[in-house]
Amino acid sequence: MANEEERRVAAARRGDRGAFRLLVEAYARMLFTLCVRITRDAALAEDAVQEALFNAWRHIAEFDGRSSFKTWLHRIAVNAALEQMRRNARHESADASAQGDDDDDFLLQRSVDEPGPEQHALGDEIGRHVDDHLARMSVIERTAFVLRHAEGHSIEEISQTLSMNTSASKQAIFRAVRKLRGALQPLR
Amino acid sequence: MSTISDNDLILYFYRDGLDAGRNAEIDAALRSSESLRARYRDLQRTLQAADAAPPVEPDDGFTQRVWQRLEQRIEQASNAPRRDDWRTRLRDLAQSLLSPRLALAATCLVAFAVGIGYYAGRSSATHEASARDSALAARVLDAYVSDHLRATEGLLLTAANSDSSDLHAGNSDLAATLVDSNRLYAAAAARAGNTRLADFLRQLEPVLIDLANQPADASIQSRDGLRDYLRKTDLLFQVRATQARIDNAGKHKT
Q: Less Cβ around it within 10 Å: N or C end of chain A?
């Protein structure tokens, strides 16, 4: 499978559109999932995927194989999604600013019981609350959190992708988790 | 009282960003402290809840639609003008730029682009002379990009700090000129192999375009949105840092 992908990448580097199309078919949906988590908007995510793949085609000669092709595409897609958000600054929520001091502890500020049946029944509502709170995060907070939590990137990789130092990346993740914690409070 | 913060617990959860010693300390503390375990369970539930957000899947025709649009763009790009036309376009841009200073910069970049193209194309020239040409061209680019970033920094500061409509109108005009030069410098940096600078300049472009198209009577909300954006993205800091890096590199080269 990996060898097959390497062959496709090598062919695409030589300008073989058919090979590049196979790569697009393999990754487009995965890139959409990533981009929609960042943009919270299907149309923006689709535009971001389009831009990312076009940039990948234009710069595929620069892909040096030090990371996997998937990782390389991921990074391009994250930047494409961020660019879509910049172009649509209105998507930044007015509630995106940090809440409270980042260094204050926030876990267990209210007593939390083990989830009972009624909490399980609230699963859909929790999902909606979480979705709302993800949407209220700043783009950087949400992107850093998505990359760490959903995509499994290391903080070092996140810092490189977002052109931030590791401390700023950590703070973005801390703020995101703090906001996410707020999503659960009304239900407890 | 525990000295393990919630932030430490978050890093511990992901086993990322803490050294092995700190992870071991948290391990031990979790074994001995019920209150810390309770906080950790709270964190685990919080992060598990993140997975409860409903997934958004693309529709069935998504991949085909993406490829169709992509193929058109690839086709257009492959028919785009090649290097000779690129130099002509740079020269035209230089003539059309509003400011004489920017026109001078663009002209220098034409020389730079031609120099690089000539360097890449000739096979019999000595490596030494070619390297000297290339280094000179890079210094020319650095000097003008540094000026460009200084102007951009001023633009962003005005946009972020001023409520004067007159200043914003002037800022829009300046932003419009900077959009053109920004593209020019990004292309030149990419051609010179400086992808980091090229990528950063490309990141600046949407902000410059927004500022160029912002009406003088833009609403307070619109300006506040820009201020929030600048604050959250550290764009001003990044502009200054890039400018400082270029200036420092220039000092080392001379």
A: N
The CATH number corresponding to A117-187 among 3.90.1280.20, 1.10.3630.10, 1.10.10.10, 1.10.10.60 equals: 1.10.10.10
pLDDT at res. A102: 58
Contact state of A138 with B232 under an 8 Å Cβ cutoff: yes
* Partners of residue B73 in chain A, C-beta under 8 Å: 54
Give A 24-63 residues with CB within 8 A of chain B: 24-25, 28-29, 32-33, 36, 42, 45-46, 49-50, 53-54, 57-58, 62
Residues of chain A contacting residue B10, judged by C-beta atoms under 8 Å apart: 173-174, 177
Beta strands in chain B (DSSP E): none
**CA distances (Å), origin B87, targets B21, B51, B90:** 58, 52, 5
Select the residue of A28, A106, A180 nearest B49 (Cβ to Cβ). A180
- The residue ranges of every structural domain in chain A are 2-90, 117-187
State the pLDDT at residue B208: 85
Q: Is A132 exposed, middle or buried (0-12, 13-18, 19+ CB in 10 A)?
A: middle
Nearest to B66 among A49, A96, A131 (CB): A49
The answer to which of A41-50, B83-92, B140-149, B208-217 has the lowest mean pLDDT is B83-92
pLDDT digits (tens, 9 = 90+) for B96-143: 444 445 555 555 565 555 455 445 544 444 556 656 666 666 777 788
Q: Which residue stretches of A40-165 are H helix?
A: 42-59, 69-87, 117-121, 123-136, 139-145, 155-162
- Domain ranges in chain B are 6-50, 84-253
Cα–Cα–Cα angle for A113, A114, A119, nearest 5°?
Answer: 95
What count of residues does chain B have? 254
> Higher model confidence: residue B30 or residue B167?
B30
Q: What is the mean pLDDT of residues A118-146?
A: 76
Q: How many CB pairs under 8 A join A and B?
A: 150
Identify the architecture of domain A2-90 in CATH. Orthogonal Bundle (1.10)
